[in-house]
Write a structure and sequence with these properties.
This protein is α/β, with parallel strands linked by helices. It has eight helices and 17 strands. The chain has three domains: 58 residues, Alpha-Beta Plaits, CATH 3.30.70.2580; 68 residues, 2-Layer Sandwich (GMP Synthetase, Chain A, domain 3); 182 residues, Vaccinia Virus protein VP39 (Rossmann fold). A hairpin with a 2-residue loop joins strand 2 and strand 3. One of its GO terms (cellular component) is cytoplasm.
Length: 331
Amino acid sequence: MEVPCVRVPRKEGEETRRELAETDLIDDDYEIAVADGSLYIPVTDPEAVADDLEIVVRGAAERDDQVTPADLLEFDPSYERLGSAALLDEDDSDRADTIANAILESDLPVETVLNKASKVKGETRVRDWELLAGDDTEVVHREYGCEFLLDLSAVYFSPRLATERHRVSQQVTEDERAFDMFAGVGPFVVPFAKRGAEVVGVDVNPDAVEYLEENARRNGVEDRVTAINDDVREVTDEYADWADRVVMNLPHSADEFLESAVQVAGDDCVFHYYDIQHEDDPFGPGERVIREVAEPEYDVTVETRHTVRSYAPHELNVCLDVRLERKNRTA
């Protein structure tokens, strides 16, 4: 069958395979092949592969020795992978236990199985989890060469946004000053810092900020990261006119923080503004409110209108990449 593969010289094959495995991009349904001095590694999402890797489409042999949860059940179960954990969203406890047992008996490298026990709650956006297998809710997640330690019961984290975080981080250049208004455990902050930026990450959740500091250390960027536990509106005075880039990933209420974001913006600043809107006009409300707050002090240019994912029936999670250029720049 024709599938997308990363092609690398054999001498670089193991390192590349390891990097792809850390980001859960290897397609385990197909065999890795060697031909003409190159290694061909099947991948699940070619658009999520780092830009410096070559993608080719070629025939690949299907693996017949990998036991999946679906092989052990009479249906294909739905779950997310986060490091060595599998995350379920099942209302029926018996069905959840059945799926958890199948996951553990399969060949998936999973040690922990968790089932969602509540919706995201409160200002810190955490949820309750039922521990079906494993010791606790703390996991190590890897994406695009970065490692994140986090406790799902104490912080908010979505593995589904890995590709979006990578899209944004690839825009960051060395010596930028970036400000993440809702930083969590650092999934934007850490890759920004690894690209050479100086980054400030703010979050109201003290547990998230502790993990952010730990993740900065784990990835060797603690000297370029400042982590602040506070409401971001209380700290923007200290960083007025400071930022070259601002991340606003709080899609249900980012508009409430736009005045603070504009206060942080320097003379030439890019906002990554996340929103959830109806599919009939997913970008208009965000663009209008940004212009309302930033103009006339800034010229506002929407550089990218990007759909991140479907959020609910007829609702889209979107991102506006918006450049603000101050009309009367400081000397």
